[in-house]
Each structure stands twice: as C-alpha cells, then as structure tokens.
Fold:
Amino acid sequence: MSDPNATRPATAEPGSSIAAGGSAEVLTPREERLHRAAQDFSLERYKYILQQIHAVNENVYKFLAIYQALATTAVGAAVALFVSYRQWGMAPAVARTGVIGLLLLETVVAVFTEILIFIGILNWLDYRSEECELTDRAVRPGFRKQPRTGNFFRWYETYIMAFIAVSTLFMWMYAVVFMLPMIR
Structure:
C-alpha cells in the first residue's frame, strides 16, 4: 500500500506532485506551468544579478583608468606650466593661478571618481542582497550570506578610493610646499 502523503519523484509531470519542503503537493497542469515559469524567471533573474555584479566590479577599473588618465594630464600640464611659465612670457601670478586651477580640476575628477566608486559599492551591496534573497527562496535559507559592510577592508574599492584620496592630497601638498613658492 502506498502512503498518500509520500513525496513523488522530482520529475513531475502535469497533474503529479512536486516536493516542496518535504511535503507533496498535487499540482494541476496550469499550476505546474506557473511553477516552471517561476523557476525559469528565478534562474533568469539570478543570471541578471550575477551579470550586474560583474559589471559593477568592472566599472571600478574603468573609473580608475579614467581618473589616472585625467589626473596625469592635469598634473602634467601643471608641471609643464611650472617649468615653462617664464619661457612663455607668463606673469608669475597667472602661472600660480594656472597651477591651482589644474589642481582643482584634478580634485574635481578625483571627487567625481570617488563618488562613482562609492555608488558602485552601494549597487554591489544591493545586488548581493538581492542575490541572497533569491537563493534563500530558490535553494535554501542561508545558501549565501548577506554582504557585511564591516568587511570593507577586504574590498579592493577601499584601497582604490584610498589611493585616489592620498594621491590627490600629495599633489596639493607638493604644489603648495614646493611649486607655488618657487613661482616668483
């Protein structure tokens, strides 16, 4: 004799039962189609989330490359101005203003890059939370741990942001201490 509450095979066909949490449930053909559609949707959503996490990770390096290019250009122009302002027949006050303006431009680029990276971190946290919620429903609760902001010291974004901040601070200190006083 068979037990009417026993779980039937996972290869469910319309009208058969599907194991859910250890109990069997008989689904109509329509419910079976909806169940499969929900599974397909969950899988596609999971793929999308993983793709977005990957894109957010790649964007950090793109932002860093843009920062490096623009910062190098602005600081290179400031150094060229510092070295050549006399040959160009430029007044010292104009040269100082030019150096400060180029450093301000570099600072604006640095701040903008830091904001983009910070927003990327927030997006990453959102996508990871959504990934955890989805795997909790689709696989089992606790399948993926929620991201912890306390692990920020492990994130490469932290060190990229620190590099940008320290390099910008160094450029300003170098200009204020060495370059600007020598423009007379």
